[in-house]
C-alpha cells in the first residue's frame, strides 16, 4: 500500500499497488474517507460523492474520480516554478487541488510533490484533451490555472474552451485577444486573462490606464525607456511591461514594445538592477520606466520590483474564486475579465 495516494476526491493508485482482494481506508484532509481496493478497477468512496463515479485510464493507472459539483482547481505547468507556487497557494487556501497537471513535452518526471503533502500526476500534451474532458465530466466546476509557456498559451486556452473549462490565464506572451474572443463566443465559459496577478501591480496598471484615459497626450514629446529584469529562463518580454507601455503610448509617448530592454544576465540583474542575489535565478521581476521631457529638465520614474512569486500566486487564487462567483451569479453580461476587474470587485485579498 505504500504507493497508494489519497486526495479528498479521487483514488489515485497504480494498479498492482494494492494486493488482490485487499483494501485500505485512507482519511483525506477534509475528513472524507477513501476506500482503495484491488479488483477490475480501483474503487473509492467519498462523503461528497454525487452520482456514479467516473473511471479513467491515465498512463497505466486506472483512476476513479468521484463526481462532485464543488469548486476544484487544476494548476497546469507543474513542475514549472510559477505553477508550483500557485498549487501551494491553492492548498494554503484549503481549496481542492486536482491531482493532475498538464505539463511540458520535455518534462521527464511523471509526478510532482507539492510541499511534500500532495502528489500531482503530470499529463503530457498528447494526453491533455482526454484527461481534461474526463476531469470536466466528473468535476463540472473545475477551474484551470495556466502557468505554462508562451508557445502553449493559446493552444491550452483553446483546449479549455473546447472542454468548457473556465480558466485563469497567467501565462504571458500569447494572443490575449484571441483568447477573449474564444471565451466570449462560447456559452458558459468564463476566464480571467492577465499578465500580472500581484494586487499592488494591478493597482499600478489601473492607475496608469486611468491617467491615460483621462489625460491622453499629457506626455507628448517625452522620451521613454523601459527596462525589465527577470530570471534567465524567462522566454518572453514581460507581459506586464507591454501592458504598461500601452498606457504610456496613450499618454503621448512614441514607443514600441520592441524597445523594451530585457535583462536576463544574472550579473547584470545584480549590478545594474539591484536584484538580491538569492532572487536572481529563483525568480524576480524588476521593472523601471523612465520618462524625460524634450529638454531634459523634467524626469519621471516608475518602478516595481518583486522578488519571488508568492504575490502572483495569491492573486491567482483570488481570480479563481472571483471566476467561481461570476459563473454562479447567473448574470453573464461579461464573461472575460482581467485582473483590474478582479481588483475592482473587491476580490483581491493581500
Ligand atoms: N500573470 C502573472 O502574474 C505571472 C505570469 N507569469 C508567466 O507564467 C508563465 C510561466 O512562468 P514560469 O513558471 O516562470 O515558466 P517556466 O518556463 O519556468 O515553466 C513553465 C512550465 O510549463 C511547462 N510547459 C511547457 N509547455 C506546456 C504545455 N503545453 N502544457 C503544460 N505545461 C507546459 C514547461 O515545461 P518544459 O520545460 O517542457 O517547457 C515548464 O515546466 C510565463 O509565461 C510567465 O511570464 C509568471 C509570473 C507571474
Ligand atoms: O515570468 C515571470 O517571472 C513574470 N512574468 C510576468 C510578465 O511577463 O510580466 C509577470 C512578472 O513580471 C513575472
TrEMBL record:
Pathway annotation: Amino-acid biosynthesis; L-lysine biosynthesis via DAP pathway; (S)-tetrahydrodipicolinate from L-aspartate: step 4/4
SUPFAM superfamilies linked to this entry: NAD(P)-binding Rossmann-fold domains (SSF51735)
Signal peptide limits: none
Residues annotated as domain Dihydrodipicolinate reductase C-terminal: 202-343
GO MF entries: 4-hydroxy-tetrahydrodipicolinate reductase; NADPH binding
Boundaries of every Dihydrodipicolinate reductase N-terminal domain copy: 73-197
Record's catalysed reaction(s): (S)-2,3,4,5-tetrahydrodipicolinate + NAD(+) + H2O = (2S,4S)-4-hydroxy-2,3,4,5-tetrahydrodipicolinate + NADH + H(+); (S)-2,3,4,5-tetrahydrodipicolinate + NADP(+) + H2O = (2S,4S)-4-hydroxy-2,3,4,5-tetrahydrodipicolinate + NADPH + H(+)
A GO biological-process term: diaminopimelate biosynthetic process
Entry keyword annotation includes NAD: yes
EC number per UniProt: 1.17.1.8
Record key words, sorted: Amino-acid biosynthesis, Diaminopimelate biosynthesis, Lysine biosynthesis, NAD, NADP, Oxidoreductase
A single GO cellular-component term on record: chloroplast stroma
Family the entry assigns: Belongs to the DapB family.
NCBIfam families, A to Z: dapB_plant
Protein name, as recorded: 4-hydroxy-tetrahydrodipicolinate reductase
Species the sequence originates in: Porphyridium purpureum
Upper taxonomic lineage: Eukaryota, Rhodophyta, Bangiophyceae, Porphyridiales, Porphyridiaceae
